[in-house]
Specification:
By secondary structure, the protein is of the alpha/beta class. It is built from 20 helices and 21 strands. The chain has a seven-stranded parallel β-sheet with strand order 11-19-18-17-16-15-12. A six-stranded mixed β-sheet has the order 3-2-4-6-5-10. It is globular and about 80 Å long. The relative contact order is 0.09.
Length: about 625
């Protein structure tokens, strides 16, 4: 780290410490930055549409009619036929005019909107380089008086239509239940429009429940199908896992219920000196044989699968330390040594029968570090997991190592040097406290950019996957992640402001103040995927009073019940924080039974049925609302 960079970090840290001390003392200067800034001009969230009539344009719809037709190929694939229908539908929503769809066997006319691959292409007219665009890249341009929306033959044209509707006409798909469609009397496009987009990652998965909607996903170019069906008209997913699960599969490959009693040697000889079912013994030839047979059986049962997970069970340890496994791991300098040799052997056998299938494994906790000797085969995927990392600072900028005592950025670089198929499993919520403030907005874009710049081909962004609302900012984060996975260098501020205005209404500017305040305050902390609320951010009583003022102002400006509900749902995070830390209306001198019950009722109103991963809340009659919210569910023994 350079001296100038070090000085900047120290200065920033001292400024934040001063801010925390000031907030504890209740000094008004703490909030000046958030009250006197052009950044909170509510017009920043307005969607801008190019209506410049001083430049040459194609007028697609005018005066309630159109001279155009939408042309699709007579043998168009399903996603391209659907793309033409989507364009027709949205142009009618925008203008009230329905433009007819014709096959390319119809006589050619001067004014056409060409969608997908058609016979209109040729050396004498225009061409589309689909090899360069790949499966999902898109191109939007004009040829004479024709508008061309083309793309890769899996889903490129469909993405092209949604990109045209978004970037040229101002449509937005902010959430599964919030689509913005402008109303225009004149629908036109610049003649010099020329948009070309190719995805940075071939698989983009936003694993949040609120993103688990096919129409939302396709409009925002999410193609992960762990929890989505994108078959048929949607063009298919990016990755299709075979077998019973897409991660932590050792116990599916060699089930302990079948083998452990008679063959404990198939399983890990752990540090306790006994065989346990925590992991497999990866140097046992029978384990390799059984696992290989299991993988092949999964693929034969599902020939549409293109990836199989051969990955360690969940947990931070429990790996095998038998002499054979230990010798390999010692030589490789990492426990990934035995794992990768095992996975490579399975991948070699799989390729003989299924040459287009990849074997996916994890670089996770004890296997995160790359081995010194063995390299992944060409049909092996390495999926690194950010589970130990800090999420208040970008991965490449955090001033301290992560919980492993190392830096994942170094591990990613090492794997990138030996592997062309790197996937990332990233964590974007707090799995122990779904509802608490989790101000990780400052890391979303730089982290995705780091992935894009280091040979990563697929990103899986895991969030709150068990309920649509999480009382924090589920929908906002899912939308921003979708935008970033398609283009890591997009204008994230624009997307954030547009979303917030549409979602919360004109009072969004006050919620944005809160977000920025929380993000700045979180810089003093190193937040993780399971941090307790007090480990994430410090809010004094005066801070909380100001935050409540901001949310009160946002609520007062809501013009619809939907806007009010969304504001109140996102405000749950502040009430959770206060309840957990016994602050504000939840302090011990207030009627915590009444405020606790009111909080529970609102959780139910918004469909929030759990506050942490996998553990549902008790029914109301079983809860003592005088107690903190972390007692409202079954405790682990």
């Amino acid at each position: 780290m350079g001296m100038q960079n070090l000085i900047q970090r120290i200065t920033a840290a001292l400024a934040l410490v001063f801010a925390v001390v000031s907030s504890f003392l209740g000094l008004p200067s703490v909030f000046e930055k958030y009250e006197n800034s052009d950044k909170y001009d509510p017009t920043l969230g307005e969607i801008k549409i190019d209506l410049d009539m001083t430049v040459p344009r194609l007028f697609l719809i005018e005066n309630g009619e159109s001279e155009y037709v939408i042309v699709k190929g007579s043998d168009a694939i399903e996603s391209e036929a659907y793309a033409a229908e989507v364009l027709q539908d949205y142009l009618k929503r925008i203008s009230g005019v329905q433009i007819p769809i014709v096959n390319d066997t119809a006589p050619q006319q001067e004014k056409e909107i060409i969608v997908g691959k058609t016979n209109r292409e040729g050396e004498k007219t225009f061409t589309v380089d689909r090899e360069m665009l790949g499966d999902e890249g898109l191109r939007i341009f004009t040829y004479k008086d024709k508008l061309v929306i083309a793309g890769g033959e899996k889903r490129g044209a469909l993405y092209g239509v949604f990109t045209f509707l978004e970037e040229a006409l101002g449509c937005r798909w902010f959430a599964a239940d919030l689509t913005v469609v402008p109303e225009l009397d004149i629908v036109s496009v610049r003649k010099d429009i020329d948009i070309e987009q190719i995805p940075y990652f071939y698989n983009r998965d936003v694993y949040w429940s609120c993103a688990r909607d096919a129409d939302f996903s396709v409009a925002n170019k999410i193609n992960g199908i762990v929890s989505l069906d994108l078959s048929g008209k949607y063009g298919g997913g990016g990755i299709k896992y075979g077998g019973p699960h897409f991660v932590h599969t050792f116990n599916f490959l060699v089930p302990p219920s079948v083998y452990f009693d008679e063959h404990p040697e198939y399983y890990a000889l752990t540090a306790n000196g006994i065989r346990e079912t925590t992991q497999l013994c990866l140097t046992n030839p029978d384990v390799l044989r059984i696992a290989t047979e299991t993988v092949l059986s999964w693929l034969r049962a599902d020939p549409t699968a293109n990836v199989i997970s051969v990955s360690q069970n969940d947990g931070k340890d429990g790996y095998c330390e038998c002499p054979n496994c230990k010798a390999i791991d010692d030589a490789e300098g990492s426990h990934s040594g035995t794992l990768l040799r095992f996975v490579n052997a399975i991948a070699e056998e799989v390729e003989k029968e299924f040459p287009n299938v990849y074997i996916d494994t994890l670089a996770y906790t004890y296997t995160r570090k790359a081995p010194k000797i063995t390299k992944p085969r060409h049909n092996v995927v390495i999926r690194l997991c950010t589970i130990e990392c800090c999420f208040s600072h970008p991965l490449d900028e955090c001033p301290v190592p992560d919980k492993s005592g190392k830096r994942i950025t170094n591990d990613i670089r090492e794997w990138a040097a030996i592997c062309d198929n790197i996937h990332i499993w990233d964590y974007t919520t707090n799995f122990s406290h779904y509802l608490t403030p989790y101000p990780n907005f400052a890391v979303l874009q730089p982290n995705v950019q780091f992935f894009a710049e280091h040979n990563v081909k697929s990103v899986f962004e895991q969030g709150c996957y068990q309920m649509v609302n999480n009382g924090e900012f589920a929908q906002l984060k899912a939308y921003l992640l979708a935008k970033l996975l398609w283009d890591p260098y997009t204008d994230i501020e624009k997307h954030m402001n547009e979303f917030m205005l549409a979602y919360y209404g004109e009072g969004y500017q006050y919620i944005r103040r809160y977000i920025d305040f929380a993000v700045d305050r979180a810089q003093l902390f190193h937040i993780h995927y399971n941090s307790s609320p007090e480990e994430i951010v410090y809010f004094s009583e005066s801070d909380l009073k100001k935050i409540d003022e901001w949310f009160d102002k946002a609520e007062s400006m809501a013009k619809t019940q939907e806007e009010l509900d969304r504001i109140q749902c996102s405000r749950i995070q502040i009430r959770y924080y206060k309840n957990f830390l016994r602050k504000g209306e939840f302090n011990i001198f207030n009627n915590t039974a009444a405020t606790g019950e009111a909080l529970y009722d609102d959780l139910m109103r918004f469909g929030i049925t759990r506050t942490k991963e996998r553990v549902p809340l008790y029914p109301k009659e079983k809860i003592n609302f005088r107690q903190k919210i972390n007692t409202w569910y079954e405790q682990k023994k």
